[in-house]
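Recap from last week: sequence in, structure out.
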Amino acid sequence: MGVTQVVLVPGLGLGPESYAPTIQHLTMPYEIITLPGYGERVQAGDDLHTEALAQRVLTHVTEPSVLVGHSASCQIVVAAALAQPQLVKGLVLLGPTGDVGASDWVTLAERWVRSAVWESPRLVPVLAPQYARTGLVSMAQAMEVARRYDLAAAIRRLERPAVIVRCEHDNLCPAGWAQRLADLAGADAAGETHADVWTVPSGAHMPVLTHGEEVVTFIKRAAGVYNGQ
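Predicted structure tokens:
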């Protein structure tokens, strides 16, 4: 088996450039995969269901890889790992959403605002072109489907290790939600799970843009090559 490949899926509305601060520190082979609503405009006939988008990701995966998701795309990489666990070495879930108990539009908007106020204004010129390229309508269509995917139920069936990462001021992925996912991930009869959870002590919902070097550390941990440095 060759060197572990890393497959990165942008978050809702974001494009490949959202991972630029990450890949500048990444020494493993990688591929960034955009999807309808996640870097690409939705086209007529696109199936936006999480499992269908996961299958699109899997067409790019030919050997056991670390799958990295951000925000709503965490659901996609988990679905990919459930569909083809033999192709997944580990997962990194950055600011995962998917709490169906808090997925109504009002709650999502309120949590987004409470997270956004902690983001640096310097992110605006970085984010705006990506959102414009994907399109607000496409983002809304993709989110309408994503918000109905029960990540807590899905992650119970996970057979591969996961590293769950959030930032201190991420209200779209509160600490309690991240811990719940870690507690549920692949839990067996003895209560052993396949995940650990980390909170970066700064930032909000955009660790891919604000904590690229730290994200690489978590990717290495998921790949089993973390050296403690």
